[in-house]
Amino acid sequence: MAELEVEIVAADHFVWSGAAKMVKARTSDGEIGILPGHSPLLAIMAEGELAIQPVSGDRISVAVDGGFFSVDNNRVVIVADNAQLGEAATAGIR
Amino acid sequence: MGAQIRVYRQKISSTTSMRKIFKAMELIATSRIGKARARVAASLPYANAITRAVSAVATQSEIDHPLTTEPEQIRRAAVLVITSDRGLAGSYSASVLKQAEGLTELLHAEGKEVKAYLIGRKAQAYFDFRSRPYARVWTGGTDAPEFETAQEVGTALLEDFATSFEEGGVDEIHVVYTRFKSMVTQEPLVIRLLPLEVVEQEAGSESELLPLYEFEPETEQVLDALLPRYIESRIFAAMLQAAASELAARQRAMKSAGDNATDLIKKYTRLRNTARQAEITQELSEIVAGADALAS
């Protein structure tokens, strides 16, 4: 199965990148889950938690203040105004 | 005669202590440049992602957004001048201010009013001394800019941009800053921030083409949310570049000041030695003359 290539960037620093099976985010309309093969999308994020299920390791949660993310060709770029990695996040950093 | 030696000694010791200060400032600037450049590099992923997103939205939709449409008549322009808080950086602030001055003249010639926004105490001092009005000023931390400051600047500029001319708003926004090209060259630069010039990209190779995005919630709202962020990120990038340039300029200025101090110390040491030798020679000849007078 294909993987998602996830990249999280904040305004002044790089936060996280890695391969993932699923990304769950909150948009201004509601929650959205992204699996590999998702159609290209550009959405505005609401304040809240992002959940990423990496290919290996535990689920990562990231608290964001808002921002947006884009999906194309299994590549997810999350641009957050302010991102804070939650617990168990360090395991997925490569 | 002894007085002259003393004067030279004082000059040598004061120049030596000044040289110590110059050296210390040079070293501090050198160590901070690396950090400043790293921050420029760290802000790149965000800037790239946001630029890509903005161009994706802009190329796909017929945009009619206040931030991208050129007003029919530009009557007042905002000029954001990014300088440093502290001096001792050679001509760094002066060349930015000169560039800003040129831009102001140009805008006046086009019949536009100019509203100035300043970053850095040097710009504030420049405007205060000439008792020129400015809309707002942000000082502190120009050598290590915070994203919050960039957000504040962005918000203030966008607010004025949204206000109509009659109520004191502006129709376009320019930024004057110093671009960090390399350690030895930094050039003052003017960019027009708003209205945005959405560059339609030529359809190049297949991989370069942006995919057809879906927008959530709506194209309009996405653009509403994206553009202020884009502006903030551009301002932040300019501030980071300016900070790196400031440090590089300071390092160079302090290096040449230190070198000049070394030259001066050398010169004064020679003069002191000459004076001391002259004193000794004179004393000797006086003694010899005295002995001769006694012997005869």
UniProtKB/TrEMBL annotation, chain A:
GO terms for cellular component: plasma membrane; proton-transporting ATP synthase complex. It is a peripheral membrane protein. CDD domains: F1-ATPase_delta. Residues 4-83 form the ATP synthase F1 complex delta/epsilon subunit N-terminal domain. It is found in: Cell membrane. Its main location: membrane. Transmembrane segments: none annotated. Keywords: ATP synthesis, Cell membrane, CF(1), Hydrogen ion transport, Ion transport, Membrane, Transport. GO terms for molecular function: ATP binding; proton-transporting ATP synthase activity, rotational mechanism. F-type ATPases have 2 components, CF(1) - the catalytic core - and CF(0) - the membrane proton channel. CF(1) has five subunits: alpha(3), beta(3), gamma(1), delta(1), epsilon(1). CF(0) has three main subunits: a, b and c. Produces ATP from ADP in the presence of a proton gradient across the membrane. NCBIfam families: ATP_synt_epsi, PRK13442.1. This is ATP synthase epsilon chain. The lineage of its organism: Bacteria, Bacillati, Actinomycetota, Actinomycetes, Micrococcales. The gene is atpC.
Automatic annotation (TrEMBL), chain B:
F-type ATPases have 2 components, CF(1) - the catalytic core - and CF(0) - the membrane proton channel. CF(1) has five subunits: alpha(3), beta(3), gamma(1), delta(1), epsilon(1). CF(0) has three main subunits: a, b and c. It is a peripheral membrane protein. GO terms for molecular function: ATP binding; proton-transporting ATP synthase activity, rotational mechanism. NCBIfam families: ATPsyn_F1gamma, PRK05621.1-2. It is found in: Cell membrane; Membrane. It comes from Arthrobacter cavernae. InterPro entries: ATP_synth_F1_ATPase_gsu, ATP_synth_F1_gsu, ATP_synth_F1_gsu_CS. The gene is atpG. It holds the Pfam family ATP-synt. CDD domains: F1-ATPase_gamma. It comes from the Bacteria. Produces ATP from ADP in the presence of a proton gradient across the membrane. The gamma chain is believed to be important in regulating ATPase activity and the flow of protons through the CF(0) complex. This is ATP synthase gamma chain. Keywords: ATP synthesis, Cell membrane, CF(1), Hydrogen ion transport, Ion transport, Membrane, Transport. HAMAP family: ATP_synth_gamma_bact. GO terms for biological process: proton motive force-driven plasma membrane ATP synthesis. GO terms for cellular component: plasma membrane; proton-transporting ATP synthase complex. Its main location: membrane. Belongs to the ATPase gamma chain family.
